Amino acid sequence: MAKVVVMPKLGLTMVEGKVAKWHKEEGEEVKKGETLLDVETDKLTNQIEADTDGILRKIFVQRGDKAPVSSKIAIIAAADEDISEYLDDDVVEEVSSEAEVQSETKTSEKVVAKKQSGYIRATPYAKKIAAEKGLDLSQIGGTGEEGRIIAKNVLEFEADNKVKISPTAKKMAEDKGVDISQIDATGRIMKQDILDALSMTDYASGDEE
After folding, report:
1. How is domain 111-161 classified at the architecture level of CATH?
2. Which among 29, 52, 54, 166 is placed 20 to 30 Å from 151, CA to CA?
């Protein structure tokens, strides 16, 4: 089901917000927990994370534009979902356009999280995912504002460090009680790697007898 993204209320006195930056373009895939956009108020800039998976089908409020709190600023939906009912112009109220958007090409580089008095800059959702998966945030690079760790960084770190193993090898390892984290394999762990590990275990057991 389509998700309407609205301008969030980031303070008791906030009545409108300015889109400082979109981190995704129309047509791009969005994952829950990824930074979707930056919203600027008269006090500070906040990173807003997506709260659902899908495709960023439509952006109503462009970079540099302002919109009232709770007004529609984007639509996230499945690629083949009909979103025509969400495209009515009268639903969207853009307050003003401050500047013409200029093209900007910038490569986002991961910044290693810095500990300051034991504190690591990370979004609450990123911390939650890391805790659930038992990951050390200090080992994860952040691409958020000032190197802040976002959920996407945690998920990418997990994927990059996840042991890759074929289904057959995985089943064999489970059946034989082989610890795949101890297998030194080049690339994906295959059935032969499990057999080699078993033969080494049998050899070691024979030496001890």
Report:
1. Irregular (4.10)
2. 166
